[in-house]
Amino acid sequence: MKKIIIVNNNMKVGGVQKSLYNLLWGVSEKYDITLYLFSKSGEYIDHLPPTVEIQTCTSLFRFLGVSQAESKNCLRDKLTRGVLAALCKLLGRPFVMRLISLSQKPLAEEYDVAISYLQNGDIHSFYGGVNEFVLQKVRAKKKISFLHCDYENCGANHPQNNELYLAFDKIAACSDGCRNAFLHVMPDLEQKCVTVRNFHRYEQILSQSKANPVTYEEGKLHVVMVSRLAHEKGIERGIQAISHVNQVGIPTELHIVGDGPMKRKLLDVASECNGTDFVHFYGEQSNPYRYMCNADLLLITSFNEAAPMIIDEAYCLGLPILSTATTSTKEMILNRGCGWVCDNSQFSINRSLVEILRNRSVIEYVRSQIRYTDVDNINPMKQFAALIGD
Questions:
Q1: Which residue, 39, 104, 137, 250, could crosslink 59 as a Cys pair with Cβ 3.0–4.6 Å?
Q2: Contact at 8 Å (CB) between 119 and 131?
Q3: Structure confidence by residue, pLDDT tens digits, 162-177
């Protein structure tokens, strides 16, 4: 049984963490896995497979796993993280990583495979550091870095970030689209970069969707958005689009599941659109699938995306999807016939929503085509096994 160490910042609710959580459940019985976290925190911590060993650090790397607000209970920690973040903004992460690295000894144990599960962000953002940790502090026969982003457009594309990938044996992108975006920046790494699709706990998704499913008001169409309320998700465009749909005479309600830094602004946008009657905010939910199973459409309005896990989850539930065009929408939506992709603009979102919602039979046709589709993790498992050399 191969010994694998997977390094990440934390296990909070987020796309990367959920992808990691699903991966661990998918492969934990086949491999001897150690999960190494900068901060042993997050909602997924208490729900990991029992065979996974969890380790965490006490060095300065731990500050890359917590927010400034989470350091408030200890004045020293709050000041330390604040200084590191300020230095990162001023001098860049490579400088700060050199300081942080001085506080961390290399791990004593050697592994067959070491995996960095989180890419770096903007060079002046105090985020990431997992690539550096795996390259500098872990001894392993093979080192792999995972990509969960649109590398060209998310702010990660920088010479100092790019240089790190030259030292890895393999780079694993979560979709073909993400792989292509990365190779557009780093074409010389084509032989190193492969696709390893996200794992999902499909049986759990189906089971949760049947647990107290939401019943929506009849006589209206119901569109759901399940997303972190952050700028790159473009949620305000969804609110404005639903407002437009109602203005042209199609009674429609928007149900937003999720939380994040944009919530206050989005509440204001809904108010400005006179949407207090047709826009509903539910906050973070441990079971978003009960909101999805009886909805008419999943709406994704992101400015840029990697391979949203919510697309596979909607596909599993037979829920049609309309998404703006981002890195992986062609392969995940159009190639599988589970919805529509529009241009990445407010005008196109508005127009596409009106066209789709005016013809409910089209929605039902798409739903009928995907409702009973078999879903499994066979391909992700094959791709992961090939990645680590089984």
A1: 104
A2: yes
A3: 999 999 999 999 999 9
